Amino acid sequence: MNKTNYQVCATCIHFAISKTESGMLYRCSRLGFETKPAYSFQCWQPKEHVVRLMKKRGGSNNE
Fold first, then answer.
1. Closest by CA position to 4, among listed 57, 40, 56
2. Can you give the pTM of this predicted structure?
């Protein structure tokens, strides 16, 4: 399984969500700027549950 099936900001350890008066704010804590859940960057590091899912489905996080 290819990691591009998972490689989006929402599955990264650096993805942070905060609720504001104007709505939800999605940020990358590593890069320091606003992002969206479906965006993807080269610095992607999957959350632990995503790593387990990738291994279960026959992939790994270093493909």
1. 40
2. 0.73
